[in-house]
Amino acid sequence: xxxxxxxxxxxxxxxxxxxxxxxxxxxxxxxxxxxxxxxxxxxxxxxxxxxxxxxxxxxxxxxxxxxxxxxxxxxxxxxxxxxxxxxxxxxxxxxxxxxxxxxxxxxxxxxxxxxxxxxxxxxxxxxxxxxxxxxxxxxxxxxxxxxxxxxxxxxxxxxxxxxxxxxxxxxxxxxxxxxxxxxxxxxxxxxxxxxxxxxxxxxxxxxxxxxxxxxxxx
Length: 218
What we know:
By secondary structure, the chain is an alpha+beta fold. It folds into 2 domains: 34-91; 94-214, Mannose-Binding Protein A, Chain A (Roll), CATH 3.10.100. Helix content is 47%, strand content 15%. It has helices at residues 2-12, 15-19, 25-91, 110-119, 130-139; strands at 94-96, 99-103, 123-124, 147-152, 160-161, 188-191, 199-202, 209-214. Strands 1, 2, 3, 4, 5, 6, 7 and 8 form an 8-stranded mixed beta sheet that branches. Strand 4 (147-152) and strand 5 form a beta hairpin. The radius of gyration is 39 Å and the shape is rod-shaped. The two termini are 61 Å apart.
């Protein structure tokens, strides 16, 4: 558009006009046409500047609104983090290898235990290897209680961890025959309450203590 207006100016301001020693009827018309073209160009430039200023003001206002919104979300996140930190400390989560563990102190069926762990910021524990298993057993309160873990074979014969639905690789079944076998009707796994803390599968509706795990620690 600017190029077009510039060409208009060149068209309406002929060389002869600029060099005339006196004003004639023809040159007067050329001057008038040139002035009109320049006035039109000025009007266009004024409009363009006003539009740009308006757009800039709108953009600035929008950005300020976004900044305010983000600031509010940061404050909300900080508050949630403080509450979560307070809850973690109040529940006395214990740290191991970058994860935190909580030993529940209320008797719940397996499904309620799984939901409870998620409500407090974690998941019902997943045991990945013998080192983690030994640590959990060593920290388990000596209270003769069974503790649910996150292993089930709700699809009979396929023991999976509820956290990520991965198949069981490491196992710590009670040595006697039958535990962890297919077709028993025992679908949920717990630590048994003796010193060995071997795994037993049993009815999911029975109420025991539970162990939660979290990938997030303070």
